[in-house]
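Issue 218. Parser rejects a valid record. Input:
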Amino acid sequence: MLPALAGSSRLTRMRTMSLTFRLAGLLVLAAATSACGFHLRNAISIPPELNPVRVIAPDPYSPLAETLADAMTGAGAEAATDPTQPATTLQIFTERWGDTPISIDELGRAQEFSLRYAVIVALIDPQGNVVVPRQAVELSRDYVAPPADSVGATSERELLAKELRRDMSTAILRRVGAALNVTHPERRGNEVIEP
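Output the parser choked on:
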């Protein structure tokens, strides 16, 4: 009976030591991220006077417009359901995609491409005032596509396009959030600052 007790206390010490190392590692990680200046961004918050919000795009089935509408709803905006009702409008004027070759092989065939995604947007409140002026937002990603007919090359481009669409939605929302912080300085992120 005595050897079993000795083994059990040894196991308890090992668990305690493992937990201590984990906590120490977590504290070191927290100190390192705060020391490098890392901090989370505030989520944007749509002021009530800008509700309801409508996202308009040239393509009625635009995945970017759907993503932006969902993100605006997540930021506290009410979706405009009646097309005749005055609403804040996030207008997408154009969406453009482009593949530019950035490297070629010894036979002159393109091997590496830069996928570019450019969108021109503006945000106009229900009274017709410009909240975010018309501006271009452009993102790009590089990818390798061997000149030989490979199955995975098109799927890599499709994954990058999906990622760029998500990143574009985030970039546009950040610009809207920055403009709202300028036009509505009493609102910063999710908090309301009392004068």
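Fixed in the parser; the record now loads. Residues 181 and 188 are 6 Å apart (CA to CA).
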